[in-house]
Amino acid sequence: MYLILLGLPGAGKGTQAALIAQAARIVHITSGELFRENIRKQTELGREAQPFVEQGKLVPDELTVGMLLDRISQPDAVKGFVLDGFPRNVDQAKALDEALAGNGKTIDMALYIEVSTDELVRRLSGRWNCGKCGAVYHEESRPPKVSGACDRCSGQLYQREDDRPDVVRTRLKVNVKEMEPLLQYYRSGCKLYEVNGELGVDAVKDDLLEAMSRGQEVR
Ligand code: AMP
Q: Which of 70, 148, 149, 208 is most buried, by CB atoms within 10 Å?
């Protein structure tokens, strides 16, 4: 299965993509994480992408598309993947479709997790991550037992540069503008399935899995 998970930053794509990848036994690929890894390692790609990522702007397509196509050509992605954070605009979606078509493949479904903008600002600006194991906390809805420390591994918690409230607003503005045409692109190909992302994690996961089985029946 070749899946795309769509949603604005903070909609829960990362959490849900991990859950459905596990359920469908396919690899979970996150474009934001690929960029952060390249920035950590200070690769050439990382150095070029860094200013865009830090300001919450989209990295230019020339860099993003190449990175993503390279990742999905790796052996672990051959029999299926769920993409999280890519595509972010119609040009990226077309580049992906063309690359897949060249290998006789196609995107099966684009799943959209819908969450209101007010809720997204609240979620993103209260988010804290563990620097050691990657666990995610929230000041209000999932606070750590000890402030600043991870419950799982005691690692130090940090706030992503681009989760600061001023950057969050830029990220949302940029992404909202690109989202509607992207939804329309998949809608017109009859590949779009929408779920309410304001329910609990398990309810959203169940709705996504249900949409996936409906989608498989149609295809
Ligand atoms: P995310 O964790 O998905 O919010 O991504 C973090 C940052 O990585 C974004 O704010 C962008 O700067 C960059 N990024 C991730 N995915 C893409 C993409 N598909 N196109 C352009 N930039 C991206």
A: 208
pLDDT, tens digit, for every residue of 119-170?
Answer: 898 888 888 999 999 888 998 888 999 999 999 999 999 998 888 878 888 8
Q: Rounded to the nearest whole angstrom, what is the distance from the C-alpha of residue 219 to the centroid of ligand 1?
A: 30
Domains in the chain with CATH codes: 2-26+79-218 (3.40.50.300)
| Residues in CB range of 29: below 8 A, 6 or more apart | 68, 71, 72, 77, 81, 82, 83, 84, 86
What's the pTM? 0.85
SS3 156: strand
Please give the positions annotated as active site: 13, 88, 127, 160, 171
Q: Which residue puts its alpha carbon closest to atom 15 of ligand 1?
A: 32
Residue of 15, 28, 88, 167 with the most ligand 1 atoms within 8 Å of its CB, for mutation? 88
